[in-house]
Structure formats: structure tokens, C-alpha cells
Amino acid sequence: MRPELTKSCRVEEFNQYYWLKEELQTFCRKHGLSASGSKQEISGRIQHFLETGEILKPQRKARVRKATVSTSELNLDTIITEDQRCSQEVRAFFKSVIPSFHFSTTIQTYFKTNVGKTYRDVVERWYEEEKRKKDPTYKKEISPQFEYNQYIRDFFADPANKEKSREEAIQGWNIIKQSPGSNKYLFKN
What's the whole-number average pLDDT of the chain? Predict the structure, then answer.
């Protein structure tokens, strides 16, 4: 059985189990840690606290406040900068070029990892992704923090589970998340 998350929990024990973000945030509030940020950031603060007893402040990047950019100032030659934001103005520009545009995880990642490229490159990437989605073998990438989603996908990808229901997949998830170790689905042979 999964232990209770308390101040006396060992880091090794903490790392062996799956914790909901809400559980991590509750622990943080109870012990004076910041409960803001991603699940990974919160987990890191808790790990540090359990190891050292020290309370880490969240790492915040200094944000440079910029004047709002109007859609008319944006064009296909606009360069992606390090402080690129997926703002309403940027969304409006891309919708004027691609009527069905929305900020997908793929496009947001593209912005973060392609500083120096242009909005024209973003448009090309959008159309490449849309083409890939039409391939019957296409599977959208699941980010590491979405362990539940990955488990459910893998459960149904296992031929041994062809006739099983979503409820059975969820039962399997509920068991594995309460157990120590990896939360990954183990394919049956």
C-alpha cells in the first residue's frame, strides 16, 4: 500500500509512488512550501524539503513586460524570440493565415525549441502535423506528466486487452499507482 505523504516520509519512498498534483499541493500548503508550478516543480520542492528540511522558493524567470503587439505588426517573417508568448494577438494572426489554427502542444513546443525561426516555419509545421494526423498510425505524443493518459493508451494497445473496458483499464491504473515503482503499463506476452 502507498504510504501517507507526511513530513517524515523518506525521499526514496516518495519517489516510488504516484501522487496527484492536488496531494502534492496540500502537502506544500501544510508545510509552508509554494504549491504553484507544474507537478514536476512541486515534486522537486517536496523532494528537497524531505531531504534537507529547507523550503525552496519557486524559480521564477524575470518577465519583461512588453507592450502588446498588434496583429497588424505580425507577419510570416516575424521571428520567434526567446520570450515568445502564445498570446491572443499571436493566435489571431495565425487564425488569419490558418482558419482552423489553435495552439496545440506540438506548436507550443515548436515555439519553445525553435527560437530564431519565423512564423512562416510555424505555418509549415502546422500543416505537417495536420498531414501526420491523417495517417491511421498517428499517435499524439503524451507528455511525461500525463502518466494516467499514457497508461490508458498502452493498456488498450496491448492485444491481450482487446475486449476489455475502460473501467478495467482504470482499475489497473488504480492498482499500479498505489504500488511502488514505475507507473508504466507492462505489456503481457
Answer: 89
